[in-house]
Amino acid sequence: MTTENPTPATPGGEKKKIIFSGIQPTGTFTLGNYLGALKNWVQLQEDYNALYCVVDLHSLTIRQEPKELRENTLSALALLLAVGIDPNKSIPFIQSHVHTHAELCWVLDCYIPYGELGRMTQFKDKSAVHADNINAGLFNYPALMAADILLYGADLVPVGADQKQHLELSRNTAIRFNNVHGNVFTVPEPYISKDVGKVMSLQTPTKKMSKSDSNPKSYISILDKPETIVKKFKSAVTDSETEIVYREGKDGVNNLLTIYAAVTGQSIGQAEQAFAGKGYGDFKLAVGEAVAEHLRPMQEQYAKIFADKAYLTEIYKQGAERALTISKRTMQKVYKKVGLVV
Ligand code: ATP
Ligand code: LTN
Q1: Against a cut of 0.90, is the pTM above it?
Q2: Which of 30, 108, 148 to mutate to test the pocket of ligand 2 (most atoms within 8 A of CB)?
């Protein structure tokens, strides 16, 4: 079901397909976010009508410091632009600026069985980490995500492998609603990169790299200084062997090889060859340096964009306006179908 190579819209005037994706402003984006998701977002905006959303409402499912969340939201928008999202090609916007997201979420809540939400592994994982705050929003998180996607009739949703289950729930919800009310929603397909489905934590390579991890050594932030990046890779957990090969059970080494291949544009095989006969120390240093080099231009762009608050404001205002115009049409249709007076 995963679309590895979706057919781009034909240049001959055929309607372009729609892409939607979101990212939470829960901290500076990580290398995992970039390689697993954002890199695809940048490529796909060339051939699709793309909407890219900073999902601030989703972030409220975990307790946030208000001042920090506001700052992180603007920073997230600036980061999207810095990695290459072009407002002339796609629509970047902030979720809470477009009221239809919360509205459709409520309707969808009434079409999603409780049991289905309870089976979500992200809900179980986050409930374990935040046992003192297992709130209804955390449980309903996938309903809001389904609303995000279905509002825009998205054909394709580029996400990291960890979001596959949520995508399946969005698809089920669209199908269930359509079965009752006729063809209202497009059933979305996930787009998961074949090369980098999931970047793993540098400290616990069986776990995904996550920007809200309490241990900063476990992740590379896109804005980490080059020396910090190298240091974090030097202390990355590997194994007690010596061979630099991609093999089952070598989670740490596999992760570093995947990262190295992705940032240098090589295949895993080429990366293995490049390090044949070398030690783990040299290997980790080389991966760190390659990542630092890869991120440098984005960091420079970010500094410029984040400093220009007037520009950022203009981008998010425009984005919200365009997103609202599109999503209002779906919302009206939904309200009418379910029997509300419109
Ligand atoms: P949080 O730690 O706050 O839950 P996160 O780092 O998991 O956040 P999200 O905002 O939830 O990031 O995800 C944004 C996008 O990045 C999603 O498409 C998600 O699948 C992708 N993504 C997140 N972490 C990784 C990872 N380690 N490898 C690949 N893709 C990832
Ligand atoms: N749950 C997603 C973020 C997200 C999303 C979306 C992704 C919210 N709404 C819609 C794709 C489409 C995550 O990455 N944790």
Answers
A1: yes
A2: 148
